[in-house]
Specification:
Blueprint: E1 11-17, H1 22-29, E2 37-43, E3 50-54, E4 57-61, H2 63-66, E5 69-74
Antiparallel strand pairs: 1-2, 1-5, 2-3, 3-4
Amino acid sequence: MSFLGLKKGMFATVTQIHSASAEMHRLQEMGLTIGTTFRVVKVAPFGDPVEIDLRGYRLCLRKRETEAFEIEPLS
């Protein structure tokens, strides 16, 4: 699943990262790595940006930044 299907309040885990770009490397350094669980705080109109809460801080991601991540929603 991609970030596009997430709604406010949902929890999800990163399962795969499909890019090795410098931008993706920076997001991984910020803690968005495979196995990381996060909560969706806000989703802007049209899904861009999305704000997530992970590892004790909040991170806003643009749609183009989320395209390389595959996630699994948690119940």
